[in-house]
Amino acid sequence: SRPVMLSVHIYPYGDGRHLLLARDITALEQAEAMRRDFVANVSHEIRTPLTVLVGFVETLQTLELSPQEHKHYLALMAQQASRMQNLVQDLLTLSRLEGSPLPGLSDWFPVSAMLRQCAIEAQALSKLLTKGAGAVHAITFPAADAPGMDWEIAGTQAELISAFSNLISNALRYTPAGGSVQVRWEVQPDGSACFSVKDSGPGIDPAHIGRLTERFYRVDRSRSRDTGGTGLGLAIVKHSLQRHDAKLEIHSQLGAGATFSALFPANRLRSARHAQPVVDV
Ligand code: ADP
């Protein structure tokens, strides 16, 4: 049994009897505790790069530095500033998602266009991440004429591109150069479909998997930070997918890579050839 938090009011009738009113405020208190946690986390995440940035500014102001040292400090400052920029960007995305109406079933867009966009972004990011590493990522996407590529999804294209790109970006960021990232799109016989990203990276201890979509939860804080992570990525992905009735599943073992999948129900999908749901639900 879980503890319950009650708000209790006692009203005397005046004749020795009392009226007792009890209200279950457990959910309210939990929401309030989550809000407090979130504000504390955001403050901490902003304070850390800001403190470093202020420290570097003071160094530049007080020390006589060689042009090389000067350049070095400026590069470190740019890194901290971009960390804050990423954080603010992700916070804005979260708040926009929370405030915008749910994507309905009236706007359909092609899966192929979405995956093409994701592939372009993946190549660019991989190039950036593997610069100077002597090896690249082996990235595979479904071919343009692969089964299921002529399907359409109902929802907001930009939101889903961003969610899929986020999963692909994580796979690339956590997988060292020379590793592989496989993107799949598979339509099931019942008309549902699965988008998945499988990487050959370090994998995740199953003990952490259940918490990865919590805001600011990171298995390795410094590894995440070094690659520009904010700890909000998967929280945003889960939220965007939920808004499209899709479910995020994570499968991984330490040392055996990770697979992140988004499962879409049949009513969000249709074959463009028929322009209507193939399966009646
Ligand atoms: P971050 O900005 O830290 O990457 P995310 O919310 O995107 O935040 O991910 C949360 C955590 O999940 C990461 O810090 C990392 O520990 C873990 N993670 C996410 N994707 C992968 C992956 N493909 N391989 C290994 N670990 C991952």
TrEMBL record:
Residues 41-268 form the Histidine kinase domain. Keywords: ATP-binding, Cell membrane, Kinase, Membrane, Nucleotide-binding, Phosphate transport, Phosphoprotein, Transferase, Transmembrane, Transmembrane helix, Transport, Two-component regulatory system. Its EC number is 2.7.13.3. The keyword Heme does not apply. Transmembrane segments: none annotated. One of its GO terms (molecular function) is protein histidine kinase activity. It comes from the Bacteria. The keyword Aminoacyl-tRNA synthetase does not apply. It is an enzyme of class 2 (transferase). It is found in: Cell membrane. It catalyses: ATP + protein L-histidine = ADP + protein N-phospho-L-histidine. Member of the two-component regulatory system PhoR/PhoB involved in the phosphate regulon genes expression. PhoR may function as a membrane-associated protein kinase that phosphorylates PhoB in response to environmental signals. This is Phosphate regulon sensor protein PhoR. It comes from Comamonas jiangduensis. The lineage of its organism: Bacteria, Pseudomonadati, Pseudomonadota, Betaproteobacteria, Burkholderiales. The chain holds residues 173 to 453 of 456 of the full protein.
